[in-house]
Design brief:
heterodimer; A: mainly alpha; 2 domains; B: alpha+beta; four-stranded mixed beta sheet; globular
């Protein structure tokens, strides 16, 4: 087990290095250059001078190595756009994103998993069909539109909820935070919910067909017990896989949801860094997300062993 | 007469900027959205930085809200020597930094010498101050600035986003530390009407009023800049009453114009819209073709539709809002497709079989590069394509992201043929000189006219304003003759204000925020 984990860690480090090289090359080859050089009031002379001062005139590999050297020393550098240390920006965005995506995931799981089981158990009934239709609808709603509709209805017309942000500036209370959390959580959890319902349903259907479930039923085990004790645990394996795959996406932040609701999270930070070609910030975010992806994949693999006695690592 | 007065009062009550000052309400929070995290460091450019920095810092000079002429900000008054090279600034004596330290001549000397003209500090407007040769402190509240040659636009440039910084907090930093002064930025200190209170990255910057502001205590308690990247969300926040000002593009007008929660204020600014021409491209190097392009484009219609009727038809790069330097006797070329067609005919461009004119076998066909994310430019492109087709000029589209476009038009030689774009310049005709001088790197149209060079250089150094006005009238006439670009519209800035706003100074918001102490809310 320890050997397995060590090998996986080694592979992961190599993978992360490749990801950063690839990302750096991509940013550097994008046209336009960092937005700090593109203020329309700036004379071409000043642009050239700033290019040198920031080191953009150096060869790309040199810029990359410089960045890597800094990172190895534990320094993610300064954001060109905001003029703050990238680590500070990520430290402030990550909790906001974890809160939003954690809440959305939780809400989605609490609602979607039971609904998925229900749909599987009542397969082909009107309940199943309604759930299928609704979840397809949820999956196909574009968040930039759906989010805006939520804002218009609940913030502009009804004025029940704030239209965006995480706090009303100057009021840092939990109640204020919860009010701001409702709409983005609804927007973000809808699509996750739809995905989870579909996934749970098909996993459960697959399990319910298996021999050991039939055996349990034949032994006269009551149906609720068959579903909760026997089928549910096995059916959760693919669902946990999906949740594992969702976690990095959630840490990366839901870029569109965060932008629409002006939520100060990782997704919004990434989008703005990309627009500004603020490469220290882009690289910092890439690094954090790749680490999370790799670690969460590892954890999911280890969880399989817990959930399914047939899986073991040695 | 009395009726008129009543009418005026009624009008004044409807238009926020016209309310008499004494009736203003005290207190409240004024919020406005900005697209991105600001850097409260006036060395860096970018609109969202400029807006915040205008309220936190002061310059030596700001612009009069009506005439846009430079008036004292931290300077009380100034004099210029006979030869036009030495400016003596008398500074205000009642100014304190937000940390309570007094503002003195040392701050001015430090900022000009160690920040603006220091080649190792990435000040984005350094080129505006390239003529500064020396800055000396005469006494605690008097400063002499020596220029290498006369520059009558110097006071205007001093008012253009050039903030004075605190010597007592920054003088110990090296040039390298001044690139990212992280500690200073945790608690930036200025002399402006609002002082820094809180910065929540990605969310907002909160400023509180500076009780000791030299020009009177600000009416508001707080100003909040909220970071809202999405344009639709910005409008939703305005309609929900959570922000008080969104500067909108004309196409957004329709969705909020009739909303009682919103009032619209449109103000002229020193900005012009145009379709940029690469004057080196065969075909476009022909003045007859460029003139025909202007005449075949219905700019009145463009103004009425794309710009929501807010603005005036443009005749050139000088803004009419800088009244003394604008020759209003020059009329825009008429919209006359027939005359445009005969101009092309005379120049040898004859109609080919497919409805496209040609000369020596070359078709009159160009590629127009635009950013589809900006509906104003995209609609301009579409209208131009349709109307130019009517006179036998074919336009093909190429779309690209805005920053990539900027990079391409700034290449030397410029890498485009036609491109709808805009310019905002300081309120002095010298502000656009850099874009039209033959050898300038900013001349993205590759337009070269020695006569223009001579006049622009003369205008830049002539001290007498009446003489300068004459020079710039000639520049305007020649540009009108040469049509180096298709000048379309001087658009107003359209400010959508929440109904609660009592007064937002009537000027472009960059300039108005330099007077943020005058803003008030009910």
């Amino acid at each position: 087990m320890t050997g397995y984990i060590l090998r996986r860690l080694g592979e992961s480090i190599a993978l992360i290095l490749v990801i950063t090289i690839f990302t750096f090359a991509l940013i550097s080859s994008a046209p336009g250059g960092p937005s700090i050089l593109l203020d329309p009031n700036m004379s071409p002379e000043d642009t050239a001078r700033l290019r040198t001062l920031y080191g953009f005139d150096r060869p790309v590999y040199e810029q990359y190595l410089l960045w890597l050297w800094q990172v190895l020393q534990g320094n993610l550098g300064f954001s060109f756009g905001v003029g703050r240390p990238v680590s500070e920006l990520i430290a402030s965005a990550l909790p906001a994103t974890l809160l939003l995506s954690g809440a959305a995931l939780l809400v989605a799981a609490i609602i979607a998993i039971p609904l998925g089981i229900l749909a599987a158990v009542k397969r082909n009934s009107w309940i199943d069909q309604t759930l299928t239709t609704v979840s397809f609808f949820g999956l196909s709603l574009p968040v930039f539109w759906y989010g805006l509709m939520l804002i218009i209805l609940f913030a502009v017309i009804l004025r029940w909820l704030p239209a965006g942000g995480m706090f009303t500036p100057g009021q840092n209370s939990i109640g204020n935070l919860l009010l701001h959390l409702i709409l983005p959580v609804v927007a973000l959890s809808t699509s996750i919910m739809a995905e989870l319902v579909r996934y749970t349903r098909s996993a459960m259907i697959g399990v319910l067909r298996q021999d050991y479930v039939r055996t349990a039923r034949a032994k006269g085990v009551a149906e609720p017990v068959v579903i909760t004790r026997h089928a549910f645990r096995t059916a959760m394996i693919p669902v946990v896989t999906l949740l594992g795959m969702l976690i990095p996406r959630l840490v990366g932040g839901a870029a569109v949801t965060e932008s629409v609701f002006s939520w100060p999270g990782m997704g919004r930070l990434a989008v703005s860094a990309a627009f500004n070609q603020d490469y220290p910030t882009i690289m910092g975010i890439t690094l954090v997300i790749s680490v999370v992806v790799v670690v969460s994949n590892l954890i999911v693999d280890l969880l399989y062993a817990k959930l399914d006695p047939r899986v073991s690592y040695s | 007469m009395r009726g008129l007065a009543v009418a005026f009062t009624a009008l004044a009550l409807m238009v926020p900027g016209l309310l008499p000052a004494q009736a203003q309400t005290e207190g409240g929070t004024f919020s406005l959205p900005i697209n991105d995290d600001p850097q409260i460091w006036p060395v860096a450019g970018g609109l969202y930085n400029i807006l915040v920095n205008k309220t936190v810092y002061s310059g030596l000079v700001r612009y009069d809200l009506e005439t846009l002429e430079p008036v004292g900000d931290l300077a009380e008054s100034w004099e210029v020597s006979e030869d036009g090279t030495t400016y003596t600034f008398k500074l205000r004596e009642n100014v304190t930094w937000h940390d309570g330290e007094p503002f003195t001549a040392d701050d001015v000397v430090y900022t000009l010498l160690e920040i603006w003209t220091n080649p190792d500090v990435p000040f984005y407007l350094a080129n505006n101050f390239r003529l500064i040769e020396d800055v000396t402190k005469v006494d605690d509240f008097t400063v002499d600035i020596t220029l290498s040659r006369p520059q009558p636009a110097f006071p205007v440039l001093l008012g253009y986003n050039a903030a004075i910084l605190p010597e007592h907090l920054l003088s110990s930093l090296t040039a390298e530390q001044l690139v990212n002064p992280a500690d200073f930025l945790r608690n930036p200190v200025g002399t402006g009407p609002f002082k820094f209170a809180e910065y929540n990255p990605g969310a907002f910057v909160r400023l509180e009023r500076h009780e000791d502001y030299f020009d009177g205590v600000p009416h508001l308690d707080q100003m909040v800049f909220r970071i809202v990247p999405d344009a639709n969300s910005q409008l939703a926040l305005l309609q929900a009453g959570e922000v008080d000002l969104v500067v909108i593009e004309p196409f957004q007008l329709a969705s909020i114009e009739n909303n009682p929660a919103v009032q619209i204020q449109s103000v002229p600014v020193t900005r012009h819209e145009f379709i940029g021409i690469n004057n080196e491209v065969p075909g476009l190097d022909d003045v007859a073709v460029r003139t025909a392009l202007t005449m075949a484009l219905d700019r009145e219609q463009l103004l009425a539709t794309v710009f929501g009727g807010r603005g005036t038809v443009a005749t050139g790069p000088f803004a009419p809002s800088v009244g003394w330097a604008y020759d209003d006797s020059i009329e825009p070329l008429p919209y006359d497709p027939e005359q445009a067609a005969s101009l092309l005919e005379e120049a040898g461009w004859t109609m080919g079989g497919n409805g496209v004119r040609e000369k020596d076998g070359e078709p009159l066909s160009f590629t127009l590069l635009y950013d589809p994310a900006n509906p104003t430019r995209a609609r301009t492109a579409l209208i131009a394509q349709q109307q130019w087709a009517e006179i036998g000029v074919q336009v093909e589209f190429e779309t690209s992201e805005y920053r990539a476009i900027v990079e391409r038009i700034r290449q030397s030689p410029p890498n485009y043929e036609l491109n709808p774009n805009y310019l905002i310049a300081p309120p002095d005709p010298d502000g656009i000189a850099n874009f039209y001088l033959s050898q300038s790197l900013a001349n993205s149209w590759a337009y070269r006219n020695p006569e223009i060079d001579e006049l622009l250089n003369a205008g830049a150094t002539t001290v007498d304003q009446a003489e300068r006005a004459e020079i710039y009238a000639q520049v305007q006439a020649i540009i009108h003759e040469d049509q180096p670009n298709v000048f379309t519209v001087y658009p107003d800035e359209i400010q959508a204000l929440s109904a609660a706003v009592e007064r937002f100074p009537e000027a472009g918001y960059r300039d108005a925020l330099g007077w943020a102490h005058l803003i008030s809310k009910q």
